[in-house]
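Reminder to self: tokens first, then the designed residues, so the page reads top to bottom the way the pipeline ran.
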């Protein structure tokens, strides 16, 4: 089902707000954006196999890797891709948005893909 961008962005805001404040405070210099589809450049950069897609993408310098030199930097970016999320979520688009946002926030903290997947099994298992 195709939802309006306004409705989808409201659900992204709701997903962000559902993360406990004590955890949200840990994130810094971050933008959360919504795009229709990932670009070819984003797919290539993320090494996504042909025929697959991305639900979300984190781009930036993870918090764990920031040092004294990390000043006046442009914000990191989490992009949630509306089309792939709508196509893959079935009837629970809001849960898919929340899980994808959580996944990308884990990358922002500094977790690699293997660590994120293990954490997701514990959290969403």
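Designed residues (125 positions):
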């Amino acid at each position: 089902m195709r939802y309006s961008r306004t409705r989808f962005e409201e659900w992204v805001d709701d997903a962000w707000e559902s993360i406990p404040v004590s955890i949200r405070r840990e994130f810094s210099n971050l933008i959360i954006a919504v795009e229709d589809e990932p670009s070819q450049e984003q797919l290539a950069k993320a090494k996504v196999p042909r025929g697959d897609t991305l639900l979300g993408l984190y781009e930036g310098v993870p918090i764990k890797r920031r040092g004294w030199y990390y000043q006046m930097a442009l914000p990191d970016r989490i992009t949630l891709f509306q089309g792939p999320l709508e196509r893959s979520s079935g009837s629970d688009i809001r849960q898919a948005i929340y899980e994808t946002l959580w996944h990308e926030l884990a990358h922002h903290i500094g977790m690699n893909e293997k660590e994120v997947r293990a954490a997701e099994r514990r959290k969403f298992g």
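The chain has a mean pLDDT of 89.
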